[in-house]
Amino acid sequence: MTLRNQVLIWVAFLVVLVLLLWLFRGILLPFVVGAALAYLLNPLVNQLQKWRFGRGWATAVVLLSVITIFVSLFFMLVPLIGQQVIGLIQRLPGYVTDLQALITRWSPEINEWLGPERAAQLQTSISGMATQVLGFIATLPAELVNIGLTGAGVIGFTLLTPVVAFYLLLDWEGMVRGLQGLLPRDSRGEINGILSDIDKSMAGVIRGQGGVLLIDAAYYATALSLLGLNFGLAVGLMAGLLSFIPFVGFAFGFALSVGIAIVQFWPNYWMVVAVCAIFLGWQFIEGNILYPKLVGSSININPVWLMFALLAFGALFGFVGLLLAVPLAAIVAVLIRYGVKKYKSSALYQGTNGDADGDASAA
């Protein structure tokens, strides 16, 4: 198969995939989450099979264990988280007003320290940031309605997702064999190499980055709650769960936490410093220890490309697009790297006299 035909096949595959996602975007949420859950749990099912469990029993044991953990956490944490989120939404306008009052009270000192022009810019920036954060949190209930996470949508999602995950896990090996059987024989080895790279990248996205996201949420929520920050559990969870968008989770959580800490603890500025240390210290740990260990170089996606993918797929497919953006960006990145590699080994890149020119230059 020529390079041109291979490129056309992959491009056609991506176009068809995007078209199908757009057509069925309204019903995809439980299937996307169920498929991600199956991919995440498949190594555990395989391990139980090695311990002489049948595939069906292994799937049932793993899935029931995960459902039990999720249900337990739901009943323990969701009522408290819900109370904190509602309280934060109600209290946030007051925090913005209090913060603006503090800035007005400090205006003489700030003007003397920074100068009138920079002080005005600082006040405008803080007010604008507070307004944006307030707007984001205020629209959360409406966004939940838009993605169907209310009433019957929640019930359907809750019931359908485990069923999808169960049947995918049960027939995982058969699906893999079926896909292998459809590959062209002459190109099977090369395509398997691409699929192996995609699998590593997807593992980094779903298992590695998903693990980092959950650890971030647990750390921020626990640390801010232990510090005594008002609504620390809700703020920490939102900051952690938003960390799949580069820099957004950190910036959102840092700005909101510091604003609340200033209003709540001032003039005890050491508590504000402690809040800053929670975020800045964890950023160092995440970037230098946690992320390299759990994710490593398996994703290898430029942050700019990742943010573009999130915005583009979010605009096209809504919440489902946000869930699919990172995995699809990882797949596209693998295909682009493969295309660049093939291009550099082609006559189009090297030229018909490339070897001869190289020999002449060496001589």
UniProtKB/TrEMBL annotation:
The chain crosses the membrane at residues 7-23, 29-45, 57-81, 147-170, 217-238, 244-262, 269-285, 305-336. It is found in: Membrane. Keywords: Membrane, Transmembrane, Transmembrane helix. It comes from the Bacteria. Belongs to the autoinducer-2 exporter (AI-2E) (TC 2.A.86) family. PANTHER family: AI-2 TRANSPORT PROTEIN TQSA, TRANSMEMBRANE PROTEIN. This is AI-2E family transporter. Coiled coil: none annotated. It is a multi-pass membrane protein. The lineage of its organism: Bacteria, Pseudomonadati, Pseudomonadota, Alphaproteobacteria, Hyphomicrobiales. Pfam families: AI-2E_transport.
